[in-house]
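Course exercise 7: structure representation. Students receive a sequence record and must write out the corresponding structure in token form. The form below is the worked example handed out in class, using DUF2493 domain-containing protein (146 residues). Read each field label carefully; the graders check that inputs and outputs are placed in the correct fields and that the protein name is recorded exactly as given.

STUDENT ID: A-19
EXERCISE PROTEIN: DUF2493 domain-containing protein
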Amino acid sequence: MNHRIMDIINFKNKLIIAGTRYFQNHTMMDSFTKEFIESNNLHQFNTQLVSGGGRGADELGEEFAIRNGFKLKKFLPDWSQGKKAGPLRNKQMAEYATHLICFWDGESPGSKSMIQLARRYGLKYRVVDYKRNRIVEENAGLLFRK
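STUDENT ANSWER:
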């Protein structure tokens, strides 16, 4: 679908699929993402998938959108902004979206920032520790407690 047309369609739900650039497990992506989509009543006709356009989890999320008939919106970083490009792009996505599923290794600062932004902007979110193949947070503030 033409991107200009996509911009005028108003989706009720906007799901960011994000995570580290080293995440490459299609099976895990599909399993956790499908379950999150079903449990939040997200469907192709009411939900747009959102990508930051990076390698790893972002790429897998884009492939998931295509395979499952979801419309896709990419937020590409503006590298003329230098080191701020990634964080600025993440903030734009968080301001735009309603949901996040993040495939995190527990270390990536970019993914950690995306999770923190999801909290700040009140997104419904789920964090999957892909190294342990399990959900580690779901709107519960579990990862960053002292």
